[in-house]
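Data card: per-record layout.
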Amino acid sequence: MTSHLPQNQTLTIRPLQYRDLETVAELANATEIEAGSPSSSIENGSLDIGTQMDTVRRWYWPLKLLSLFPNPLQNRLCVRVAQDDRKIRGAIQISPFNHTRSTWRVDRVVVPPSSEKLGIGSQLIRHCLESIWEARMWLLEVDVNEKDELALYRHNGFQPLAQMTYWAIAPELLEQLAQREPDLPNLMPVSNADAQLLYQLDTAAMPPLVRQVFDRHIQDFHTSLVGAVVQGVRQWLHKIETVSGYVFEPQRKAAIGYFQVRLSRNGSQPHVAELTVHPAYTWLYPELVAQMARIVQELPAQTLLLASADYQPEREEYLQQVGAQRISHSLLMSRSVWHKLRESKPVSLELQLSEVLQGLQGTRKPIPSRMSWLSKPPSPSTGLGKQEPSQSSMEDIGSLLPNDQLDMTLDDDTLS
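The structure for this 416-residue chain is written out next.
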């Protein structure tokens, strides 16, 4: 691994401790590399060390205890810090993305504003790639305008997966959209019994490469008892409410549209919506957006945030048509644990001639040519002293004559 740190300087990467919280908070306030967005399309349940440090201090010891054995909150606060000579130089926060924990995501990288940013950030990322054995794919989201952050992730093997655009629908526009009666006769509430339908819809709504990286299964659409309790506590603490539903197509017995709205009951933060539509039923976009607009009318006026990807042109066209405002662009990037940055073994160009010609050698006996079929076997001399030409002499003559003359000679000889 290439390091941009001085040769006499080494970093020790270890898990976050309680005494590190103040230093990490100072680093996060000074400068940070945030992999994601406030309305990120790859939302997780981890506590953000950049914006939720007070909550992290309050719940540090319970979460530390829960991280010792398997449970839904085991990786709620998974942070690694880089220490050099008893000084915190940077931190990285990661979390599992799916239920099988085959895909992990980089939530945040916090590094100091210095020329060693690339070296410290790279060592933190490489440490996570090597220490999380169950991870097969890594995922992150970064703003397209952050050139230094993009360079850091590209340097460590992350490649673009999709381009994300985040939209904001103003309260006045939501009020106009809510005046329309949505045509959703088969709108159903979401429960664990619908996990199979939602999994099939999620599979059909994304390209194969994105689906392979996300690696979602039916369990990802189930809500366990502990998860439901945790979600209820979070909603009570943050004064939010979640409303979701899906559109059922009775002929095909499949879900063709799904929405989830995270509502702010006190109006202190924007509403955040998640929307999934089958590619063959894009006419559902106006209906589902109108349904969400009617839901938010019962709460204090606030903006509705919604994301779209570059493989969803119909959604982007509709949002632009109704007057939604683009607020940010981000890049979804992924990396496989088997990715190689550069081949270090030199390739020798000195090849032996026998190795080059080995593929040109014959593998079976040649098929006899037309000359061998038409030539006559040699016969003894006649009484006049005339001798029949041999096969070798005929082939020598044939090689000196054109094809038409060769045919005439053979025909004359055959007739005689």
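Known properties of this structure: The chain has a mean pLDDT of 81. The two ends are 85 Å apart (CA to CA).

See the next section for split statistics.
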